[in-house]
Design brief:
With 139 residues, this protein is of the alpha/beta class. It is built from 4 helices and 4 strands. The protein is globular and about 40 Å long.
């Protein structure tokens, strides 16, 4: 990776309404402009899960304006790291990409109390990821 190319990360889950939205929001919030962030779903929902919006607001991150997006081949090809969250075989795989699969509880249909521990686990994983791909002090 050259000094001018930002690392890019794509978060993928089925509906792009919960886990991938939280992960993308944390990465954007914590890494700022050091990383290019995308999220998408293999079967995107109409809106972001309201319990996810509420849980993220509790930690000062507003995802209320986010819209679930459909997973495209272009998004995968444009990303250095693809992190899947339970989308199984529906995620396209391309050589030369780094793939991680984070096994996280699906917040769909859950209340904010159930979403909080998922949110907190995602935040910890994001902090670890930033340390690997965009440590502080690098630009």
């Amino acid at each position: 990776m050259s000094d001018t190319a930002l690392p890019s990360v794509l978060f993928v889950c089925v509906h792009n309404a919960g886990r991938s939205q939280m992960a993308a929001a944390f990465l954007t919030h914590l890494a700022g402009d050091r990383v290019k962030v995308r999220s998408a779903g293999s079967a995107p929902a109409d809106t972001v899960n309201p319990a996810v919006v509420a849980a993220m607001a509790e930690v000062g991150i507003d995802v209320s304006a986010e819209v679930p997006k459909v997973l495209t081949v272009d998004a995968v090809q444009a990303s250095d790291v693809v992190i899947t969250m339970g989308c199984g075989d529906t995620c396209p795989v391309f050589p030369g990409k780094r793939y991680l699969d984070w096994q996280l509880t699906d917040p769909a249909g859950q209340g904010v109390e159930a979403v909080r521990p998922i949110r907190d686990e995602i935040e910890q994983r994001i902090r670890g990821l930033i340390g690997e791909i965009a440590p502080a002090g690098q630009s």
